[in-house]
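Section 5: illustrative case.
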């Protein structure tokens, strides 16, 4: 299946590691030009180097998506480099979650700045470029908790629900301009954050992940692989998803209790 992503310019926030880096690799395989941002310069440069070694045209911009000025600099740099933008993956994020009473105002604000305001500012910044290109696609990476929050999942699940609402609002507003906006709701997919958790538990990721998937009751019986996530994002960005907009797709091995 030809995704028709060759020569397209796609921006991936949080692209230096985990699911964002896997997405960048997938996009490079398809011949897309990819701009990545993340805060840590060393990891960002290493990922960009690996992508270039794979033959990719890649721009790496150190940026914190919780800062409005960094997002503007990231989008401007990509547009200055290639003269167009066709897609945006709002992927940068964390899984801040604790009992409601323990979440301070500062923590609520930080979570919203990073995940909700970060995504909405990036969408606003790319919009004129997508319009100039005759259309494009935005993918918001969220969590299955956006649809099915559990106890002790604030502030993350609340911010993710807002991200799902933002996805629908944008899909309604931007469709007439040829811009599709979708969300991918992640369950449990192996990434750098899962490697850090496994390390903390003193177990190899394969063992730790299998145990956590069993405990959570993932119907497919395992953690997802980052390539499985990246395939879905590449599809949603591509011409093969040209009639899909405003959806929130669970990529979770069946884990979510709701469709
Ligand atoms: N993997 C899962 O099971 C899972 C489940 C639910 C939701 N998600 C969501 O999926 C997305 C990717 O998760 P992941 O598992 O791949 O995480 P990860 O392995 O921890 O990677 C996160 C990436 O985002 C970057 N990042 C973090 N904060 C950033 C910021 N403020 N500005 C710019 N970049 C930032 C990190 O680099 P720096 O730290 O250097 O900035 C890194 O490149 C996140 O939004 C996460 O919440 C993942």
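Designed sequence:
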């Amino acid at each position: 299946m030809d995704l028709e992503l060759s020569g397209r310019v796609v921006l991936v926030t949080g692209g230096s590691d985990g699911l964002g880096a896997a997405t960048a690799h997938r996009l490079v395989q398809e011949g897309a030009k990819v701009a990545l941002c993340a805060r840590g310069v060393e990891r960002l440069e290493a990922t960009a180097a690996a992508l270039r070694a794979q033959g990719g045209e890649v721009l790496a911009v150190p940026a914190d998506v919780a800062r409005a000025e960094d997002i503007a600099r990231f989008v401007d740099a990509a547009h200055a480099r290639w003269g167009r933008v066709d897609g945006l993956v709002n992927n940068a994020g964390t899984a801040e979650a604790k009992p409601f009473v323990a979440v301070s105002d500062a923590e609520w604000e930080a979570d919203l700045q990073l995940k909700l305001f970060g995504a909405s500012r990036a969408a606003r910044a790319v919009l004129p470029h997508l319009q100039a290109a005759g259309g494009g696609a935005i993918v918001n990476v969220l969590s299955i908790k956006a649809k099915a929050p559990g106890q002790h999942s604030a502030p993350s699940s609340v911010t993710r629900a807002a991200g799902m609402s933002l996805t629908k609002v944008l899909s309604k507003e931007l469709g007439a301009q040829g811009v599709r906006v979708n969300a991918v709701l992640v369950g449990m997919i192996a990434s750098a954050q899962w490697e850090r958790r496994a390390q903390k538990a003193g177990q190899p990721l394969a063992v730790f992940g299998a145990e956590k998937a069993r405990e959570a009751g993932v119907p497919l019986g395992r953690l997802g692989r980052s390539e499985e996530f990246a395939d879905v994002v590449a599809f949603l960005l591509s011409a093969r998803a040209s009639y899909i907009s405003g959806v929130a797709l669970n990529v979770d091995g069946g884990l979510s209790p709701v469709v």
